[in-house]
Amino acid sequence: MSKYEIGIVDTRNVLQAIKETHGLDFKNHALTFFKRRLSYIVDKYNLKNAEALIDKLIHEPDFYELFLKEISIETTELFRDPSLWRHLMEKFLPGLLKNQTSFKIWFPEIASGEELYSLAILLNELGFLDKVQFVVGSISQLRLDDLKKGRFDLKKMEVNQANFKRIFSEAELEDYYRREGDQGYINRELLQNIELARQNTLYDQPPRSVKMIMWRNQMLYFNHILQERLLKSFCHCMMPGGHLIVGMNEKIDYWNSDKDYTLVGDNENIYKKRYS
User: Fold this and answer.
1) Beta strand pairing call for 177-180 and 183-186
2) Which of 12, 64, 188, 210 is such that its CA lies 20 to 30 A from the CA of 173?
3) 184 found inside a domain
């Protein structure tokens, strides 16, 4: 039996149903990405077609919560793109944090915990973890529940181990998590200074006094209108001189963006908020 593939009209109908029923507007997300995720959800939950998906989204609150978790793609590696993490460890974070007494880092609309756990481990190795407060946002309460437990998938542990060893030659990744069945759980002491917030990054008030934002590999999920809106919002909530880290294949390039940001890490795409 072939998989049902959501069409463009179907996708727009699903978007409209979500907006009318739940008040959440996905219209400026990249349409091709959203279409692929909807097809994946229909297939995973054995739904007949787009109409069946819409019916469940409207009438089943528990399924809607599952949908919010499923609609984003999880980053399933610890220390993805090891060169960035080596740069953060060796050149960037020590100078940035050595004279700080407190430092707020925001993860807007986090897709999975690996990015957060990677940074927490790195900061712990550097001896700066107690100086940092993490603010972690998601539209999915189920996603936040997983993060609160420190849960992550063990299926890519071979890749995780290889990434880890490219950064920390002496430390052991096993010291930072425990196994329970097919799930891994990050040590709780790494998650002490974390504020979890169910929020819609597009519309809800961002946190104040942010000094760094981790938003890697996210731009491809939004059209240019939404990219610019989010990047300007990030700039406004960051302290002057704050930093935004985006994906290695992404760049900040909207009209007048050079008045908001300056590129300070060419190879790793680290941007700094300009002082006004």
Assistant:
1) antiparallel
2) 210
3) yes
